[in-house]
Amino acid sequence: MRAVMRWVAAPRAFDAVAAFVVGVPLFLLSVVVAVLSVPGERAAILVAACLLAHVAFAFRRDLRAFFVIAVALAVQAVVTGLFIVLPTVVLFPLALYSCTAYGRSYLPVVVGLAGAGLAAARFATDSSVAAAHLGPDPWMLLGLLVAVVVAAWGLGLYRRTQLVYVNLLKEQAGVSAAQATLAERARIAREMHDVVAHALAVIVAQARGGRLIPERATEVLATVEETGRQALTEMRGLVGVLRSDTAVGSEAGDLRPQPGLAELPELLDRARAAGLAVTMTTAGRARPIGPGAELALYRVVQEALTNTLKHAGGGASSSVRLSWTPVDLEVTVADDGRAPAPTAGTAPGNGLAGMRERLLAVGGTLSAGAAGERGFVVTARLPYQKGAV
């Protein structure tokens, strides 16, 4: 089926086969009608003109092919007014439609109207037509031919509009796909930053503590091992998203779901194991906010604790507070360590920017800044969705 669709999508191949399938019976009928209607050499001229028109019809989307067909029919009109009864005449409106649909010139419709007038005039003045007592009335014939030309032109314009619209949709789909790809890449970059930065911050803090307190080496190594295993599990999940051959029931299907608010105690335990004194309090009645929002808030807390481990200095403590207010969920992470100072010539990190992007994606806001001379506070606010209040 796909091979057939690809063949149909190839214009030249399709036109050539269509010209053969349609043209052979029409040409044979035209030969019979020409031999019976016009004797001698004139029949041979009609047959040659028909053959030329059918060959040109294989290139029907080309304006030059249309003019070849028009010239072939004009030669037939010079030979006899009876040319109009030849089946080959059908090629003219088909070629007019094709040139209008796939080109931008108005010459075909002009030539078509002029040809309609020529055909009607030749039909009215040819003695062989009068001797055969053929109808219809020349004026009626002119009206019929003009109607055929206008109909072919109108259908061609309609098809051209369709093609333009389809191309526009394809372009928009391409732009949307590119934007979706960029958004997904940014999301994965944020996930990788959060996972790797937190794990490395814990490992560095543990390594520093193990160097200062050698007797805790076993405990420190156990924490480093657990942190590394957790980071590898989450990284496996991110890499699984990128794999195109992942199927239902495969190894990726056994990965744990993305963390949410329920996993915050486990996150705080890892921070405590890294040497950070951290507490968590909750106020208000919890409401469902959706897995995407929970993941965003989890990453905000994770990044804030990671920054505390990296920048607050030894002996710093931190607190996490979840306040379920009547209008929104407010998550505050505060520490009492030294505020991070920007280093000259160093670009700002991606942590705060990533947190803001996460909250913005789920409809929330983020504020962060120093709390006086010591300490740093990160506050995330997420309005409830309708029906969750």
- The largest sheet has its strands arranged as 1-2-3-5-4
Question: What is the succession of H and E elements?
Answer: HHHHHHHHHHEHEEHEE
> Main beta sheet, described?
5 strands, mixed
Structural class: alpha+beta
The global form is: rod-shaped
Strand % is: 5-15%
Rg from Cα:
39 Å
Counting DSSP H or I runs of 4 or more residues, the number of helices is 12
Low-confidence blocks of residues:
1-9, 244-255, 343-348
Descriptive terms for the model:
389 residues, alpha+beta, Heat Shock Protein 90, 2 domains, 12 helices, 64% helix, disordered N terminus, phosphorelay sensor kinase activity, two-component regulatory system, transmembrane helix, DUF7134
